[in-house]
Design a protein that fits this description.
This is Plasmid replication initiator protein-like protein. InterPro entries: Replication_initiator_prot_A (IPR018777). Helix 9 runs parallel beside helix 11. The chain is built from eleven helices and twelve strands. Among the domains are: 167 residues, no CATH class; 53 residues, no CATH class. By secondary structure, it is of the alpha+beta class.
């Protein structure tokens, strides 16, 4: 494809199919709590070619390794399968159904929901993604007192193509999620994604959106140094090359506003250090929605907002404290429990500081 053809392409992929909102598991934050707190190492490769490099990250005596399988590391685009499986489980939990670690679905359902091609090529790419997800293994040490425990697991434990038609297209697929991912789902450690996430062409754009979704959330703005952003993205490029990639995303976004939920800009900070600035477009769903269930279950995004307000604290322990306080208080129950809980976390952080 020549440069003119590339220039004439639309910034986003075509919207091939109507799709609902999705949830995505914040994989690394789902690591054993208290041991790897704050760890944000990218698990998924940004490369579109087979990436067979071992990755290792160390932080305060703890470490995590991501080891590729024979087909290479799972990519940012392979993550679509986890997004789809997790969204199915969360939907079931919200409807009060029991959920299992294995998820069965029609291949065309996943392809349609994640804006993929439903041609034979689309099915071939889906099979390759399943193989990379099953092959990628994660190892980490867990510090418990004076003992160190090394634990290994995969992004998915296994998959099975239950039936194929004669032309090779999958009919039914069953995916067994790893314990790590499944425990995160049960704890609702998830975030709602804008459906245009699946229309982003470049791996770096998807990674930028994921980071903005987590760190900026519903805040007006999030700033991060270019070098630290490179580390969080998992880029293996030189810093100057990474800056060029970011500048291209910024130029595309300035021209077309294509990045979902957040604009992306590049600025020069103090001492000449480059900063990448994410600003909210105001499109992330608000927490301030009326509830008819008094203080019923909180929405998944509420826990993420609570973590931003009270970093380092166990938000589920804070939730128990908040519910106990309301049970003993004479004050009326909040009409907007999600917003009330986030406000409680904000005041808790102001009084207590970091744990």
């Amino acid at each position: 494809m020549n440069d003119e053809s590339l220039a004439n392409r639309t910034t986003l992929l075509p919207d091939r199919h109507p799709a609902k909102d999705f949830f995505i598991c914040d994989i690394v934050d789902a690591a054993p709590k208290g041991d790897m707190a704050g760890l944000e190492h990218p698990v998924f490769s940004l490369s579109t070619k087979p990436d067979k490099r071992l990755r290792r990250y160390e932080h305060n005596g703890n470490w995590i390794e991501i080891r590729p399988g024979s087909d290479g590391l799972a990519t940012v685009f392979d993550r679509d399968i986890l997004v789809f499986c997790i969204s199915q489980l969360i939907a079931g939990m919200n409807e009060g159904r029991e959920v299992a670690q294995s998820v069965r679905f029609q291949g065309v359902e996943l392809l349609t929901a994640t804006n993929r091609m439903t041609t034979g090529r689309g099915y071939d790419l889906l099979k390759g993604a399943l193989e990379r997800l099953a092959g990628t293994r994660i190892s980490t040490n867990i510090m418990t007192g004076d003992k160190e425990i090394t634990k290994g697991f995969g992004l998915i434990e296994s998959f099975e193509i239950v039936r194929e038609t004669r032309d090779g297209r999958m009919q039914e697929i069953e995916v067994k999620l790893s314990d790590w991912v499944f425990e995160a789902v049960k704890a609702k450690e998830v975030l709602t994604l804008h459906r245009d996430y699946f229309r982003l062409r470049k791996p770096i754009e998807r990674r930028l959106y994921e980071l903005a979704r987590k760190h900026c959330g519903r805040k007006q703005e999030w700033r991060i140094g270019l070098e630290l952003l490179k580390k969080k993205c998992g880029s293996t490029s030189k810093l100057w090359e990474f800056k060029r990639l970011i500048r291209k995303v910024v130029e595309d976004d300035e021209r077309s506003d294509h990045m979902p939920d957040y604009s992306v800009r590049l600025e020069e900070g103090a001492n000449g250090h480059d900063l990448v600035v994410f600003r909210s477009r105001g499109t992330v769903p608000s927490l301030n929605k009326p509830s008819n269930d008094a203080v019923g279950p909180l929405q998944p995004d509420t826990y993420h907002a609570a973590r931003l307000e009270a970093p380092g604290w166990d938000v589920y322990e804070l939730e128990r404290t908040w519910r106990d306080w309301m049970a003993m208080s004479d004050a009326p129950l909040p009409k907007r429990p999600d917003a009330a809980f986030v406000g409680f976390c904000r005041k808790w952080q102001a009084r207590k500081g970091s744990p």
